[in-house]
Amino acid sequence: MTKRQWIPGVIGILIVGIIVGASILAPWIAPYGPNDINMAESLVGPCKEHLLGTDLLGRDLFSRILYGGRSSMVLALLATILSMLFGILVGTTSGYFGGIFDDILTIVTNIFQGLPGTSLMVAIAGILGPSFKSLMLALVLTNWTGFSRIVRTEVLKYREENFVEGLKSLGESDWKIIWKHIVPNMLGNVMVLFTTRIGRSLLSIAGLSYLGLGIQPPNPDWSVMLSDAQMSFRSNPHLILAPGICLVLLIFGINLIGDMLRDWLDKQNREAGGYL
Q1: SS3 string of 167-227?
Q2: What is the value of pTM for the model shown?
């Protein structure tokens, strides 16, 4: 990759790094508590005392922005990790062993993939109620099929290679071949999907929270702030612009990192002759 090709990825790393760093350091950076109410300063515009203004309850918007990414980022990361691990398990079992395992798991995967993701998340969150666990379950159930399909396709390709047959003849167990030799070779495609799914999960969390089925107030979350702003954002656009821009920038940065990772792994794979 040339230096010019690295630039978008570096920009993405800087964007994500700044946002994540600000969220971690929020207790030391924020001038006010995220839930400090001051009705005397309700809906104050950006000023010296409040850099981004205040909301309807007089809470400092800048402080809430600093704290606002924590819940969504942690939830999106954990949900995507669980989706990836479950997808890898299903995909490797289906692709490597074939037969009835492949038939059953392919049918299950097709069923989940055929369900509208947003509708399924709304249904799960609505039935179980708004909570961290219900959001996690909704995200995992709608994300694991993407990992499973990619992994199954890669495993079907690698299981016919000579090095797999050679390892079997040497007495290597099937699961050792899968996790030690096949999975590392397909990790590039999985990690690229992993980065894009984090962005998708962030959007899903924001959507569910906006509908009142996700992260709940008074949690200082960007998606909660977007929901709270709907009553007065016309006269006070800063209420919706600040959290909206942060959310868009975070997803944009993650996607830039994913593109860089894909290009780099493709280059490494070509130089290695197709195998790591």
Answers
A1: HHHCCCCHHHHHHHHHHHHHHHHHHHHHHHHHHHHHHHHHHHHHCCCCCCCCCCCHHHHHH
A2: 0.85
